[in-house]
Amino acid sequence: MKIRDLPLPKYIIEHLESLGYDELYPPQELAVEKGLFSNKNMVIATPTASGKTFIAILAAIHQLLVDRGSKIIYLVPLKALASEKYREFKEVFKIPVSNKKIRISIATGDYDTPGEELKYADIIIATNERMDSILRHAPSWINRIRLVIADEGHLIGVSDRGPVLESLLTRLKIEFRDIRIIVLSATISNKGDFKQWLKANVVYSDWRPVPLREGVIYDHMVVYSDYSEQEFPRYTGDPILDNAYKTVEEGGQVIIFTQTRREAVGKAKKYAEFMGHRTSVFDEEKKKVLEEASRQILERGEVTDLSKTLSNVLKSGVAFHHAGLSPAHREIIEDLFRRGYIKLLTATPTLAAGVNLPSRKVIITYTSRRGFGGYQEDISVFEYKQMAGRAGRPQYDENGEALLYSRYENLVEILIETYLKGEPEPLVSHLLEGENLESQLLGLAATYRKIGSEQISSFLFNTLCSIQEPERRIMVRGQRALETLIDGGLMIYNREKDMFRPTSLGQRTAELYILPSTAIYLKDVVIRNRNIEKPPEPVLLLYYISKTHDMGVLNVRKKEQENIIRELETRYMDILGDYLHALIENYMLYYDEREMSAWKIAFVLRDWIEEKSENDILRNWGVEPGDLYIIRSNAEWLCYAAREISRLFKNTVFEKEYTKLVLRVRHGVKEELLPLVEIPGIGRRRARALYIHGYRRLSDFRDAKEEELISIPGIGKALAKKLIEEARGP
Question: Are 142 and 134 in contact (CB under 8 A)?
């Protein structure tokens, strides 16, 4: 089917053709036949790069044509993916639709705002969590939503992210009239469950724009899924590198998935050394681009041992990608890979669940990983398919190739039958696990200020979970969740009216988007310390937020355990409670993983706000820049939440101290630098340099001379001029 055959106005057809859209892919044509230009819910289950985003764009165009005043929500699991989709939608919607300029906004952070600033947007690209938060605040425009598109819908089956998306889609479909839901997913084996849950038409296709050939590497031989064999050259004796380099020589790119970050870095260093001698792969222009990118790695953000390693390997057209890299560095790597400058990219599986980076070949170096309790467990077929799906670059490759590596010949057939020919596991709901149900029921109550048993039942029995779990289990688990909220002081039940109402703490908990257990714990801490007069040590306040489930857990190595105990005994013994005293004296702290983790995070944050460098934190605590970024983001959010709970329970000391910690954690500075880092363009390193030279606040620049400011490290001519102008005012 041609684009010109679609039931769209001529000016839109011509615009789409000008962007390079000419003919629909088979899955796109199937979606049109199944009702894309109707109001029917749909589940689109097709492989990576088969054109799902364009299906969403067509649905959005149709919606805006039939209802100019409607809002469209495009849901994604990650901020990076939100940015990617924002760019794609901006490109398509450059022209007006129905004589209306289409406004597109992005919403990915700040859970404690209702999102009123989004009321003028026609299309909102939002993370699942941000949209869930917006729903709890119920902004004025919420009833104008008519189309919701959920990208990466298979993440419903992931325990830590899935329940939010499941609950969000459930609430949208039962609470709003005339709303249409389209779920986009690469892999759904139990399509019937989703069809029943959303009452949707299912579009299923295994068509790929670039055919995928799958095989298993053993020694220097590839055994394909049809059991045909192909030998490949020996360049180094390392089968993975030798197979990858064969593809590079042929003009392709390769992603090599490793089990751990350490492996990704180690292999990248080894491969870069080899590639550095293969100068024929790059011309002079490409070498210059890589040299410039190598320099950018060291200029964007603080220099660490990790960034130095990345900068070095990049010169050879090799890179590594994992969650320990800073967002800025990941962005550089992703851009270079898309443009074809990086030939070999080693990565952990997080890449497969993130932004779209297709490659001619994917090599997966493992089929098992360390699981709970330290035992090895096999990866799922679903995880394999996600990684394998990255193979094949549309418009560049005639074929994509996904290869599993095996050290043992006797496993080749097993791997082919299990992974290459296997069906992905069904996507199952995780709504009943952990605190997911408590959090979602509290959010539901907070939206309407009160809910009855009938409304709760309507929610529970419209979830995906209700299709997959026995009714009695759902009812028992729901009752237990409500009891937990009531016992924790987050909810009140009026038996006469059969009505559940959130308390002021419960309402604030839902708005702050923190877990019920986090709110209950922080409430207890705040009340216990309500009568103190002297501000606590910052490290203790950081420890409190680090102990919450919202912060998560860091692995603590044995050497770090000893450092933590030593620090507590020598520097902080006087501020510890009886509980921790007993843990230390009885050596029990060594065996309490959550307690150890909380103190490690607290000390990492302490070092950060004491202006220790990212490299010092990496060397002392093994926390890489990407992890530090997440810890800082979580800590800022939790300090803000602790401040709000302190205000609620009238602990003025805690409120004041957590207010300062929000800013100190955000900027990574001592308290004395707060006035400076609040000035746009002044980071913590520039602020410290300015402070040393006698500049303490914006007004200090009023009488400054431009040449004096330029002499200070990190202050350029443009910034110096800007500081003086801002200080002097209009």
Answer: yes
